[in-house]
Structures are given as C-alpha cells and as structure tokens.
Amino acid sequence: MSRGERIRDDFSETSSLHPDEMPASRRRDGPPSGYDPRSSGHHHRRPSRGSDDETRSHRSASDYEVLSYLSSRGSRQTSPRAARQSDSRESFDSGWSRGASSYDDDVSMRRRESRQDEAPRQRRYDYPEPELQCSRRRGSGFAFHGPPGGYDPKSYRHHKYEPRSRPAGRGRGAYRRPREDESRQCRSPVFEEDDDDGRPRVPAPRLFARSQSDRKAADDLGKQMSGCSLESKKYAPIEKIEFCERPEKMIQDTTLGKKTVVQTNYIRVHTSSELILLYVYNVTVTKFGKRHEKVLKKRQEIVPIFWKCVEQNRGVFPQYQDMLFNDNNMLWTKSRIRADDYETQHFVYDNDGRKIGVVTLMFVSVSNYTANPQNAEEAHQMVQLIDLIVTARNRCRLTNDSSYFYTHGKNTFIVSGNLGENEFSMPMSFYVGDSIEGWRGMHFAVKPCLRGGILANIDLISSTFCVSQYPILQLIIEQAFGKREAADPEIMAKLSQYGMSSKNRKNVTRILGGRKLRLTYRNKSFKFGKLTDEPASLLFFVADDNRRISIADYFESIGMKLRYPNLPCVVPSGPCKKNRVKPIYPMEFLTTSSAIEKFSGPLTEKLAASYIKHSVLPPQKRLTLIQEMTNKECTFEKMRTRETQATRDRKVVMEINKKMLADGQTGEEVAGMDSEGPSLDNQESSSKGTTEINEGSPVDISGPSTSAKKSCGNSDNDMGVDESAATSDEIPTSDFPKFLDNDDIWMTNFATGVEKSFLTAKATILPVPSLIFGNSRFYDASHRGDWSIGREHPCRRIKMVATKGTKTKVIVPAILVVQNPNDPTCQVDDGNLTRHQAKMLLNRLNDHGQPVYYANGEPNIICATTFNQSSQQIIHLQEFLYFFREKVAEMVTDDKIGVPFLLCIYAYKGKNYNSQRDQFPPDYAIIKSLCDCEIGIYNQGILYETYRTLDDDSQNGTINNLVRKMLAKVGAVQYVLEHGGNHKNWTRLTDPSSPTLVMGIDVCHPSAEDRQNNQSLDSLSVASIVSNIDVEISQFRDSSRVQNPGDEMVVDMVHEMKMRILDFIKHSNTLMAHIVIYRDGVAESMFEKIFAEEKEALDAAIRQLRPFHKDLNPTITYIMATKRHHTRFFAIKEEDTAGPVGNVKPGTLVEDVITSSRYFDFFLTSQLGNLGTSKPVHYYVLYDDWKPSYAFWQTITHALSYNYASCPNTISLPAPLMYAHVAAKKAKSRAVGSRVIQRRNKVDSFNIRLSSLKMETNEDIDGMIFL
C-alpha cells in the first residue's frame, strides 16, 4: 500500500472524528517533543518565500494532518514533479526534511533584515522563536520545521552555538581557528522592536505553500475536520495532563496490615533561603590536533582541558568556588565573566607553551538558585545545582580531593589504590578478572517535591573499571594458568619456553580489543589492534642497514633482551602511515593505560558471577557502608571499638608496673608471669600483631587480656608501655577526604547543607491472598513469600487440566538434541542420551494431574533426532518437526487429544548472537520460530548439563520449575488466588459479574552485546503486551512486535489493544467492566507522553470494537512501575526481617515521607531477597476512573506478585508485568529465527512489520507459550 493510500484509509476511518479525538498514531501534532532544529544534523535547502501579503497564522494540531494529507495525496494542485514522486515518498512520521532551509540560515536572514532596520540590540538570551516552515524535500510533498513542543524563546536549552564564519573549503560543522588573542568579542544578535510587554517581537509563524490553491485546499479541509479555518485557529500546545490524586486516607493511618517502621537511605537537604543570582554559560571545548580540530563530547576529555583553561586564565574566570561546571557543556557562575561579551574564547596551552585547545563560553541567561522553585523547570534546575554543589569539591581538578574520586553522572567512585587501612569497614574495590576490577562508591541524587520536602537519596553503588597499568604479561598468566598472584619460577619458566594457545590468543584479543596500552620503556600510548601470528623470535623485519633481523634479536642488540621470545607481539590499530611499516611491540614491555577507564562492554558469564559475588551485599553491611560514606565519624567507630580493650589493657599494665616497683619486685619475677598465661596466646599475638575486638563481641573488664600480660612479660623497661598514650583515647584522623562535607567552600558559598542522619518511614506489611491448588490450599501467614514443595507436600495437584475445546490434552513427547556447531568435541546425540531424566520429568507432569502419553506403564517418547548446523541444513529439522506433528495428530479419542511436546536438549547456550563474526545463527531462535510460529509444537529447552542433574528428589528445584513451565505452556492452571476469602480486594477484582482485564506492557531493549551486531534483529527492541483471558486472572496471553531500538513507545498500540480485548471476550464469554494497565520501563519525565499516547490508543481500540460489542465501556486504570531507582529499606526490628540475609518482609509498603507530593505513588517490596538487599518497586497510579478504595491498588499489586506460574514464590513485579518482560525476550528470539529461515529461503525479511507478523504464535498451540 502506498503512503497516499494509507493516509486516505486513515482519513476514511477517522474523518468523522474531531482532530483532538484522533489516536496519536494518526494525528500529526507537529515536531516531536524535545525536537531542536539546531541540533538535528540535517542541512536544509531554502524554500521559495511567498509574497508579503501572504497570510501568516498560527495553526492547530490538525493543520499538520491537513498538509500531510495534501502532500501524500498528490492532488491536482501539486507540481508535476511532486506527482511523479508521490509513489516513492517517505512517511511523514519517519523524520524531518533533508532539503528544507536550516534554522541557522533563517535566523541569519532575520538578523540581517533587523540590522538594516537599525533595530536596538537586545539581550542574548531573548532568542526569537523560529518560524514555522513548510518546504519541499526529496521524494515528498511538504515537511514542517516548527517550534518543538514546549518551546520557550528564553530557554537556553533550545539554543546550540555554532561558529558563524567558516574558512573556505571547510564543511558546515568545521571549526575555524580563532585569532591569536586570548579572547575575542563576538557580535550580539539584533532582534526586532519590543512589544508592549517589553519582550522582543516574535514573528508570527509563516506558512509557505507552493501555490494559492494549496492554501485554499488546506483551509477547506481544515474547516471540514475541525470546524474552523487555518487562519483563525492558533497553534494548540499539548494540554497538561492532570494525573490521579492521592486518596485522603493512607494505609499507614489505618488498621489494615501490620504496622512497623523502616530505615530509609534518604537524608534532608537544606538550601539557601535567600535568592542567589547565577549567570549561565554554554561551554564548548575544542581540542587542536595535528591536522584538524575536534569538538570534545566525552566528559573525561572535557574536564582536564576546561580546568586547565580556568587555571591559566585566573584573571578572566571567577574564583573556582564561585563556579559550578557540569563536566560537559554548562557553567554557572556567581559573577559575570565579562559584562560586555556574549561570547568569548580562551586558548589552552600545554607545559611547552603550545596551544592544545580552546574553550568557548557563550552567555545564555541569568537564573536563580532558590529553595522555593515556582515551576517544574526551576525545580529541575534546583536539583541539578544541588547535585553540582555537593559534588563540586570531588570534581574540580584544582582541588586535592578530586584525585581521590571519579565522578560519573550522579555516582562518585573511590579511585582504586587511594584508600589506606581501616578507612571503611570493607574494601571499596575488588578484582573481577581479565584486568577488570570493581569500584564501590556513593550515589547522590536530590529529590524535590517529596512529602518530606527536599531530600537526597544516597546509596552504595558499584561498577566495573579497567585496571590501570596492568601488565599484559600478567594477563597472559591469568588466562593460561588461572592465577592472578605473582607467578612462581616454574610458571615463568613454562611461559618462556612455550607460546600461546589459539584459545588464549582469542581471549587476550577479546579482552584488549579497543583498549589503550602503554609502553614501559618509553612514554607512549596506543590502541590495541591485534596479535601477530608469529612469536617475537620468528617475526622478522628489514632494518635500516638492509639486514633481515627478528624482533627478539633486535631488542637484544639494543640491550633489552626478551625474556619471553615465544610470545606474540602487539600491532597497534589504525591505518599505516604512508611509506612506513606499522610498529610492533613485544608483550612483556606493555601495560594497560594509566588513565581511568570505565569498562562498558558485556561481561562474560564467569566475570558476571565474580562481579555479583563481590558487589552484592546484605542489608546491614550495605547500610553500614552508606552511613560511613555519609558521615565520616562512622568510619572510625570500629577503630574506637578496637581501641577500647587496648586502652583498658594499658591502664591495667601501668597499675601492675607501679605495684611491682613499689613492692621491689625484679624483672625476672615479672617475666615469670608470662608462663602462667595460655600457651596459645603467643601464637595469637604473633599472628594479629595488635589487640583486636570484633564488633559486638563481649569485652572483659575484670582484668588485663592475655595480650596485655604478654606485653607486660616481654618488657624490660616500664613494660614497654607509653604512659601518655595510655591515658588518651584519641583516634588518629585519616587523610582521606569526606564524600559529603558541609564545611567545604562550595557548600558554604552557596548556603547548602545536608543532614547526616537517615530518615525513617512508617511502613505496613500488607495482607496476603490464599493459593488454591487441586488438592491443597496455601496461606502465607509468616509473609515468607515462598510455597516451595516440601517433603510434607511432595506434589500439589493442578487446579485445572489443559483442554482443547471439550477434550483433555495429552502430552505426547519427543526429544531433539542440539549439538554445538562451533565445537566438534561435544558429541552428545539422541543415541547416547539417557532417557531416564526425560521420563522422570514426564512422570512428574502426570503426577501433577496433566495426562502424558504412556506405553507399557511408562512415558512413551515416540521419536528423537539430533541436529547440528555445521553438518545439516535447517530443512532436516523442519522435516523432523512436521513428521512429529503429523504423527501426534492421529492420536485423538472421544475425550482426549494428543498435543506434541518437544524436549530440546541443548549442548551449549545458543540463544543469541555472540558477535558479528558468528558463523552460525543461534539454534534456540531457529527452533522457537519453527515450533512456536511456523509449525505449532509445544517445546521446552534444557541445557545438557542441567539435564544430567535431574533426579527423583522432590526437593530438586530445577525439575519442579521445569514442570511448572511446561504445565503453563500447554494451558494447565496450577493454582488460583482464592476468590471470596479473606482478601476482600482480590474478591472484588475477580468478581464474575464485574470482570477485570489486567494488562502488562513492557519493551525489551537490546543489551550492549546485542547492539554490537546491528545486522541482527537482536539489535532491535521488542514490545510486548500480556493480559489475562479468564475472570480468575490465572491464564495469560501475549502480543508482541518489533520496533526500532530504544523506542519506549509501543508501535501500533491500537491493534495490540484490540487483540488483547478480543482474546478476553473469546475465552471468558463476557465483557470486561474494568481494564487495569501496568506499564514498566518509563522514566518520570516521559509519563505524560507515554500515558497520553497509550491512553488514546486504548480509547480508540474500544471505540472500534464498540459497534460489535455495544456494552463495552470499561473503566480504565493506568499504573506505572519503575525499578531504576536507588531507594532501599532496612528493617529496624528483628521481627520484621525475613530470609537468610535479613531483608524486609514481602509486602512491605511505604507511602510516607519519601513519596511524591505530586502523584499518587507508593513503594512496595513484594519479593523475598535471598541474595543482597531487596529493591522495592516504585508505583505511580496515574489514571483511575474506577476509584475502588484508598487501599485497593496497593493490596492488589502485592497479590499479583503471587500469581507468577514459573516459580513457587513471590516476584518483584506484578505477574502481568513480569510476563510481558519474558514475552518480549522470547518474541525477539522468534523474530531472529524467522529471519534466519527466510534468508535461507532467499527471502529478505529484515522488515519490522513482517518480523512482527512472524512472531505471532501458531493457532494450533494455545497456552502461555512465552514462558
């Protein structure tokens, strides 16, 4: 379908609707939110301007639809050229014009016109609003370049500086080297005369059409659609959405649940009560290279040059304590840098006096730092400024404290190696592996508009960094021998005799890829390229005297004999210089770079396990470290405890000494006291060195410890005791600076302070629902959130057997063994695979109540095969699957029907592409596409290593989890939450007379590893919508589609919503009275946009279905769930903890102090954390026209965490949201597999729409296939 036909179809469906009622996917509301014409990156051609008497008018949102319609329809008024190109036009939504005049050119023209009129100069920050333009582009009719949503002419955020003059022969973005003077004054812009209100007159939006007839047609169509003319209706801004208000009553103030108090990681922030005036500058840092200039974008490159510029230009810049720099592009100062300059440039020199760069400052505006922001923009700026003030001392390169810290966004890490002993209660860095280490630090984020006022969230964070100056030789030893410690002589001897294996070569190349290396014998750094194929002893080159000499012999000739000549050499990356050979360096002379480098690549499975092991901390250890970082006095608490017993020992020894001297005892008599102590004491003292008492251990106050006796006995002169030290309890202070210091010059200068004590909050442990199985009932009275099968309950029968129509499903099994195509040594196949584990798994399914196909008293596996991509084509796998399905199709009786179930035994983890160099596509994706979508076969994957460990023990968690997933996939209902029990709100939610449809929406984005292969569908995002199909809310189905990477908005939401509504009506034979949506993965700044789009899509879906279901008029509730935060709760009372590490109990609700004053929000911890500290989920009830009760959504959200079929415990999210997350990942695998199959069939299916269709499950299989 051409674009014109699609637009016409859209208008035929919505022509009777007012533009404001149209779905957002069909309404063109102008440029996207946040669009900045100056930073779009497109260079536009200037359109032909209309005559002076052309009508200038503001336009409504529907005007974009009108003109887009004209441009796509190819009407008579358009030019012949546009008509010829109508079939090849791109969609309006796909991007802005590439051929229209640029924002810069248009502003420059207005400036020239203004200067000709001799208009007075205005302030730089009173920037004119851009004209709304409609211009031609290649392959389409019109494209618009207008003011973005929420554009403010006085806002510096919409202005991006570009040099005004460019030397001839340079591109548009090239930088022109300024003159030799340190700073130059630039011309200020000239604007039109002021209006009556004192603001510069902003030109009215100007519409450029190609002909008068086009304007008339647009006006006529606009009248038909909106009932008003384009000339009379102004540009309609997006209306601010009013979200749901918090109920007057809160659960914490009622008798519902168990009341308690929890410790939070929030502290109060105090700001200046007086107004502080700040001058705002845009900062651009340009670095001079040998051939060209480069505008720096990375913080680690910008920061040193900027502060070097400040240091070299102290007469220009204010004192550094009066400046706040965000390490990127913005600077706030308390005094004006130069009163008469709007733009200045300052050169930066190195130690030899050479210019290395230039810092360009452009005055933007004047802002206020105040404790009482008047709007959201001022509140955002206040948060940004407080963050900068608190961390300025740690970031400013002109202070000594900055060398101890590394700041990345809101996180401040402690640089490895800068800590002394006893600084913190545990190490703040740890080694992960492969020259990667973990650093701990502090997360500091200011939260305004909370019920407790302005608070700061402080948390312990950790991240991975590359080890500085790590010897490459040590990395080779680690890869070859698995040891990081200094190698013994035997290992070093082996390393000098033998070379590197191909496996170690591959690992070292992967680890060092893209990293900077440093020569140890010369001050030179370069980026790693590759390893040579030959070792240094066999790698030859032609020397200056035309001699052919090896690398090893060359270094020996200059007095640097290689100790390891059998190791390969390193070749730098980058192109080779003309007429020169690339240099080659032996590995033993190389280390990693000394600069701090954050590791951003994906961790291997082994490294990820090591990182989690060291970074995850139980609640009390985490809280202790947070308190130590916030309040340095807490750091020495442990030292004071240790010193307590030592001080008592000194005093006791002094008393003994005085008494002995008074009695005239000799030294020999005193020495005899040592023999009376325990013989083990000497060993303990020698090993510890000093007296040490652990926290919480009892302290003996009756007499001296054995260490004190030892000190007494081994002394010949006053027992070796310093009397002055014995009478003092002072603890030596540390040189390590504080994370937070209210006395530093920035905090004092900007009148800002933070409290050191953490806030407590009222909490409620919510009631739990009962779980009804086929033969038992479970009630979580102790709030453990776990109902694992114990020996007292070896098997819980399922609540409902899977059926197809009126017939019971019988599982008919087959086995597929998938070999690793990249490893010929792994030779497990269906012939040597033991069947015992498979039959045991099938027996367990039958015990739970789901029938399995039996023969001779045991499960009958009707067929099996082996598949290996390296030796077999995909057609072989397809033929086997079709044969299996056809054989099962014959197994039908009057009351039973056989369903095929394939057990896939994988010899390796082949779910995703590992890199672009993968020779074979992932087997998992191919099988999921064939079974779930193309052929229609139930399937369950098991790793071979896991398969071997399955046994008959009822406590085996692996086999029980497999059983649960297989039951859910075929459509069996394992349990339901009790309707009509003690949980009154759940009873209301599952009322058959007023049923509820609960949806979960999530978008799965590609990981850093997936993005590396942009030719794979792994690099795209997948959106999934999951909802229940029954009144009991126990069975769920999904709809998924592929979309562009990073897009949080679900594409074609109307279609997906209709699918979910129709599925519920089909399976439950009733209309829903309520629709509840749980949405995940959205930042607070995107709430309005995402909610508005998805709410309109849902309304449109209901309107389109209403002609077929006249009574369809459900209430709508929309709840956002966010997990990307650093809020943590710590139990104060022992009775409020659960699990092995002491986390808060599942169901802990907090709606006090730290919640928002703008939204109806709450924090809920619904999962029992067995490892690390539990993270609560932050829920926002944005929209609710049901409004059941003040406690309804909190209790229902917790109850839904009991409804996840794959595991016997509560989960951190409501079940629909977790299902949506899992469904998105499985859908991505199906899409990848479908593309592989289509490409093998010579069909290119790298198309979002086609790929989305290929993800839909086969209609012959019905169940929760996405698990």
Automatic annotation (TrEMBL):
Residues 156-176 have a biased composition (Basic residues). GO terms for molecular function: RNA binding. Residues 1-223, 660-734 are annotated as: Disordered. Coiled coil: none annotated. InterPro entries: PAZ_dom, PAZ_dom_sf, Piwi, RNaseH-like_sf, RNaseH_sf. Pfam families: PAZ, Piwi. Gene3D superfamilies: 3.40.50.2300, paz domain (2.170.260.10), Ribonuclease H-like superfamily/Ribonuclease H (3.30.420.10). It comes from the Eukaryota. Residues 69-80, 680-694, 703-717 have a biased composition (Polar residues). Residues 1-11, 18-30, 49-62, 107-127, 212-222 have a biased composition (Basic and acidic residues). Residues 487-594 form the PAZ domain. Residues 901-1232 form the Piwi domain. Belongs to the argonaute family. This is Piwi domain-containing protein.
